[in-house]
Amino acid sequence: MSYPLPSTVIAVTRPGAPAPRLLDEVRRRLRLKHYSLRTEAIYVGWIRRFILANGKRHPRDMGALEVEGFLSALAVRGKVAASTQNQALSALLFLYREVLGIELPWMETMVRAKRSQHVPAVLAREEVQALLAQLEGRPWLLASLLYGTGMRLMECMRLRVKDVDFARNEITVRDGKGGKDRRTVLPKRLVEPLQREIERAHVLHETDLHAGFGVAHLPHALARKYPRAGREFGWQFVFPSAQRSIDPLDGVERRHHFDEALLSRAMKSACRRAGIVKPVSAHTLRHSFATHLLEAGYDIRTVQELLGHKDVATTQIYTHVLNRGGNGVLSPLDR
């Protein structure tokens, strides 16, 4: 089901009450709790759609009936995936609990949609090489890093200079999924290309400093604790954007990281030229990293740590990709 998404904030009113800017308060609470900008945009979008779907009534005047009706419409008429439906529910639960401060009994009984178990798409080693052969420049380096380190797309995009350790051949992933840090391997083949990329970032940073800019966005309250740290090169992105832009969090003009959409377009074009018909995204390279390590005989616990999975059960999905149950199964046709 499709609902219109106006660009302006909806002022939801109740009879006899002033017009509160509900979505502004949602944003404030999300930022107070250090949610990412991506999550902020998603949650605000779902809350806006919920309000519009119910005639712009204030959420205080609605309850379980309206929430269940909205989620049902998404599933039945919108035919959205279970993960999308659960995402909408999470946004509405945040609205009622964190913004409106309402703890209602029906919130505890909301049943999340059961997610389907899909085996991830994985490229063969030859397909990875064919894909990389069709890329060049920064897209080639980013795709190579994703495959060679197992990082998630945004972990790679947000990589800071200080977190690349050439002496130990490792990369520290900061504030990954679940707010966890971890270390992963830095492929030796990427040392020189990555050093050149960091040198280019250094030149760009010096140019920004001379122009009165060059202050990186620091996580949490580090900017207040270390006022000059944002100007240090170690805090800059390894893959900076070509242009400066206004940071939506504080309104400061600074250089953001490389646009991930550019990498997605480059990979899509490269797959077409390489003749790869599998559905391929940046995350496919992460799946391929894990699968190929297991194929090489590495312990599943080691792969779990490199990927940053909280539970080894998440990592075990790659044993299904390998078609291994226990010590492996040989088809009777191949005997």
Automatic annotation (TrEMBL):
The uppermost taxa in this organism's lineage are:
Bacteria, Pseudomonadati, Pseudomonadota, Gammaproteobacteria, Lysobacterales
- Species: Rhodanobacter humi
Would you indicate the residue range of the signal peptide? none
Which stretches make up the Tyr recombinase domain?
A: 118-331
Family affiliation: Belongs to the 'phage' integrase family.
- SUPFAM superfamilies, per this entry? DNA breaking-rejoining enzymes (SSF56349)
The alphabetical list of record keywords is: DNA integration, DNA recombination, DNA-binding
Question: Where on the tree of life does the source sit, at the highest rank?
Answer: Bacteria
Protein name, per record: Integron integrase
